[in-house]
Amino acid sequence: MIPTRSFAQKKNLLLAFDAFGTLFAPKGHVTDHYAAFARHHGIDVPSKNANPSIKDAFRAAYKHEFKTHPNYGKAVNMGAEQWWANVIKGTLSHYLKPKQSIPHALVNDLLTHFSTSDGYTMPPDVMPFFKMLRAKKRKPEQVPEWMWDNTIVGVITNSDDRVPSILESLGLTVGPRRVGTSAERKICSSMDDDISFVVLSYDVGYQKPDKRIFDAAIEMGKETLADGPEGLDIQDFEKLYVGDSIDEDYHAAQAAGWNACLLERSEPSTWNAAEYDVHHRDDPNDQQPKKVDVIRTITSLVNWSPSEPKP
């Protein structure tokens, strides 16, 4: 079904995605990678009956670092690399023998591993969606199912600065525009990139669900348009955010003035025509009867259109 504009709807779309869990996900459990690399570097992580289990150790180390140094230690200029190094050491320190230490090479290998497609996979609905957008830019008349005249795609994420390299290693083109100094922000990006900009919580200084990270994305959209076709203004664009967390993504985006879709991805083996519809279900966190817009695949966005404003 090709959606139609039933009211005076804007013809362009500023579309932003969450990153982790939405555009990419780890290959298996993160701790399986930790254990394999640790064993390679001579640390004996038991495959069974470990106390604590490596999953519990990782969970505790992550929670400790998140509480001690929120937003990757932005307040103390720590940075994501040192932040994750602390998580790695906190996880694997339980399995050290007397006088054994965690090798720097182990930490570096894991950081590198989780910076590329070696550590991550792209869900099967993501690339077909971006290929459809590429085709729309080349020959708009051949992709009538995507009703938007112009689409700017960005990423808004609480993940760290490895996100662009991960996305590129998975086959997407990512523009260089980031929130930062004025010189950095003048680097040209293009609406022809699969992703024109990436907004990182570390750069902004605030994490989702804070409204300011979504406001930063609007500014990135404005700057992208400044380098794009003449005559377009960000006010001519609907704003849509897509993510897999009902609080940090769906509700946060709506509170910031964006439209939102909650991604509850189903297994590819169950996909059928109905899976490509936009579903509506009750919000379990809301005391008032309210429906949540849910999609099972990113390609379902071809069937999304903003709700008609109420008088």
UniProtKB/TrEMBL annotation:
Pfam families: Hydrolase. GO terms for cellular component: nucleus. Gene3D superfamilies: HAD superfamily/HAD-like, Haloacid dehalogenase-like hydrolase. Coiled coil: none annotated. InterPro entries: HAD-like_hydrolase_domain, HAD-like_sf, HAD-SF_hydro_IA_REG-2-like_cap, HAD_sf. This is Haloacid dehalogenase. It comes from Westerdykella ornata. The lineage of its organism: Eukaryota, Fungi, Dikarya, Ascomycota, Pezizomycotina.
